[in-house]
Each structure stands twice: as structure tokens, then as C-alpha cells.
Amino acid sequence: MSRLIPDELRALLLRNGDNPEQDHVPVVKLFDPSGAATWLLSEMLPHNHDVLFGLCDLGMGFPELGYVSLPELEDVKGQLGLAIERDLNFAARFPLSVYAEAARVAGSICESEPLLQHAAAWLAAQKRRDGGA
């Protein structure tokens, strides 16, 4: 059992990992309480439960979609020696692609409702322009 990911969230991450082509809603938000690093995670690899997929922001202005090691996150100690934490109040309202687009515009993961709505509208317009692909 992970100290960061309780069993019920782990089960959802694994279910999402079984369908990697889908644009999942983030399941969990992790953050460094003494720094700017944040992770919005939507999937756990079904063949390797130590690897998660999501939007990763190390606080350098270039958030990106990618993979992260759960054991490595659990071992991280921030500037004040504090461990990575899970945001207990996080409730995703949009698919991961919307958070990624908003983060691209903002330069960091954000939860600004107007920015997220703008990103969702822009992505929907792009999808319509591309013929729904």
C-alpha cells in the first residue's frame, strides 16, 4: 500500500491505465508543500504499478504530460525536508488534456476555472476543426 495513493484511488488509476487512449479525468493531485512541484495523475500502468501517468510540473515553467515513479515520489523530501503530499480536497472537473492546455498557457498547473473553461473550449474547437479526430 502506498502512503500517497489509497486503495480506492489506486483501483481507479489502474482501471484508467487499462484504457490509455481515453482522455481521463485526473484522479489524484500530489504536491510538494515546500516548493512548486505538482502532479495531476490519471493512470497507473497495469503491468507496472510503480509508474503513473499524468501532468507533471516541477515548477520550472514547463509542465508536461509524462510518467513518474511512485516510489521516487514517496522518497522525495522538499526544501524543508517535507514529503510529497496528496491534495485531499482535489476534485477534477475536466479531462487531463484540458489541465495540460491550461498549464501550457499559464506555465504551471492551475485550477483557475476561467482558464480551464477557455482551454476546454479551445480544445473542443480544435477537435471540430480537425473533424472530430
Describe this structure as you would to a colleague.
Strand 2 and strand 3 (51-57) form a beta hairpin. The chain has 133 residues and is α+β, with helices and mostly antiparallel strands. Helix 3 crosses helix 4. The mean pLDDT is 94. A 5-stranded antiparallel β-sheet has the order 4-3-2-1-5. The termini are far apart. It is built from 4 helices and 5 strands. It has one domain (7-129).
Q: Please, how many domains?
A: 1
**First-residue to last-residue Cα separation:** 38 Å
User: Segments where pLDDT lies below 50 for 5+ residues?
Assistant: none
Mean pLDDT: 94
Helix content: 25-40%
Q: What is the chain-wise order of helices and strands?
A: HEEEEHEHH
The largest pleated sheet is described as: 5 strands, antiparallel
Instruction: Describe the strand arrangement of the main beta sheet, using strand numbers.
Output: 4-3-2-1-5
Class by SSE composition: alpha+beta
Q: Specify Rg, calculated over alpha carbons.
A: 15 Å
What's the total count of β strands? 5
- Beta-strand portion reads 15-25%
Q: Helix segment count?
A: 4
